[in-house]
Amino acid sequence: MFIKRKISLLLTTILCLMMLSACSPSKVEVEQSNLKHSEKTTSNSAGNSHYPLSFSIYDDAGKELQQTIDKEPKRIVVIGQGFAEWMIAFGEEERIAGLAYLDKSFSEYEEQIKQLPIMTDMWPSKESILELQPDLIISMSSAFQKERIGDISFWNKRGIPVLTGINYTTGRTIDSFFEDITNLGRVLNIEDQTNAFVDKQKEQISEIQKIAEQAKDKPNVLLLGMSGETTYYYGPSLCLIDEMIEGAGGEYIEVSKETYVEMSEESILSVNPDKIIITGFQKSDSEALINQYLRNPKLKNATAVKNGNVKVVEYTTAVRGSLGLADLYKDVAQYVHPELYRGE
Length: 344
Known about the structure:
It holds the Pfam family Peripla_BP_2. With 344 residues, the protein is of the alpha/beta class.
């Protein structure tokens, strides 16, 4: 029998600590540009007609709100290391006036992050943000709560617009990840670069999906996450990897209608997956995680365990989405249907 927990308890802790983690160790690849300042489009300096800019965001309750940026933002407070890494990858780190809520895990941008004006590695105070006189705040939607950095109206009343992203209330999908990237491009007036990135990612995903059409079967795949000694299942609305599994020719096992379910060995056996994917946080010991399943006597009769089909993937990209999305999509496809990729 499944042991269900309310999402407001453990999930909030896990997502807050993990979802803003360092992005995948893959740099943004856009043709004819490495997205550094020396190679950026000149639209920021010449295209003043881009502003004022009005756009829609969603708060943590899923309510749609309108925001307006009167002029090009040059002093941005960023809440969350993941957002900062997006800006570094697109060559926009000089706009960051303050960075807070850091993750301690591995990042290929570690040295660049150290050079940024770090406010705190936790939630910053309202006062510390106001002292920086920002013209924009970029953060995940769940940060805008009274007990964290204040709700969106608090900042709007002070003439500071916000850009939210990574909203789990409205549901996390690959399209919503691309929308976050696109919105960043609109707000910073670097749409040529962000659109090129999104188009390239979509092209790569389309190629993977075409290969998957050749599959002769549809393996059942179970996604499991781990927090300490606890094993849990993510509902499709809380991750992106369900779409990768389905797009790669697999069947994502929906354990429950609940968005978050704690899993026991009996729970795993009851769905008896053909393959298991475990979300490992950044540089987790993948071999150790896999062996927890392969060497667990209670799981010896599970099909995935008997056949050695247990794989660890990086948490951030699988759940929240990162700049290495298409790379993980292909990695998942090769795991779900290795026979389609022999010879590569």
